[in-house]
């Protein structure tokens, strides 16, 4: 792929090495070890769950390497039914830096969507351990506060080791990687890396929501680094997450991140009940398709038909081809390699009448190119206001404009 992104000035970057796995407390420990102020991190966490947790740090060794261990001590009983909707309202109301709030809302929204998909319920109704527990709230808010305190303008990350085997969870014995981690890994390069659970849902949500990648260590002028330790100390590897912080090299050309190349799957069908097509598209998107769509065509002998096309990451092509063969009447699937020129993407949350509405932002070279409110959040807003969806969409657009999320604006 030939996409090139030349930055007009140096930016402060941080790169996460998740080659031994990632968990929220490990990433937070690494950022504090790299120089983030623990007091400011504590203040941000207290703004959301005041008096409910305490953060402790200690220096440990993992496979002979020094690292910082971050412990979250829960000081009060955590409610087992802390719903995502209630947590979102708490984050919106908290006295937080806007950058911390926006990042935390985006991470928890992604985590709730993944848990909801895994358990077959709407994200609004999610009240599972990883979304609601106090230690997860401390990890997510703490990481977001640490990134702001370090002045990180762009976060990058490596492929993630996710582990293998089984693990005990609130819902019983689960395979490793757990279903939520797999869901959160869509579009990201992962590998086993060892036995046991190496990546938690919270850690995976932080990486895949806040970072670009997966990429190797980029060219940069190193200004600091940190290592955050996990609880276990296996002999075969250092159980740490590393973070390298520095400045990009002025005028440096960044090649597109791996994974932007894709495979286009296609099948032409003229004998499928048209009522089945919406379910086919849903199955493909659920199975990890980057996109899927239908085009009506006129086939041989004048028969009306459809061309089904599926955009897939290379590693997902086999699985998605199997979905097409299973759920349609086609006898074969065509494949062709494609290259995509894509914008960097992120979410920022804006507040409308006390409700958080995520805005999907496409940006390049530090400039906003596109900004669009997430339609699912707009639907929730419309129901809450008792207004038409188009009116809620206009209000959400206005809030985005008010927050400076407009084409041509600087992206920070």
Task: Please name the defining characteristics of this protein.
single chain; about 400 residues; alpha+beta; Alpha-Beta Plaits; 3 domains; four-stranded mixed β-sheet; about 30% strand
Number-wise, the strands total 20
Helix content: 25-40%
Q: Strand order of the main beta sheet, please?
A: 5-2-12-11
Determine the structural class based on helices, strands and strand pairing.
alpha+beta
- The shape is globular
Oligomer: single chain
- Tell me the distance between the termini: 26 Å
Average pLDDT for all residues = 86
Would you identify the regions where 5 or more consecutive residues have pLDDT less than 50? 1-9, 251-260
State the domain count: 3
Radius of gyration: 22 Å
- Sheet bearing the most strands, described? 4 strands, mixed
Q: What share of residues are in beta strands?
A: 25-35%
- Total helical segments: 12
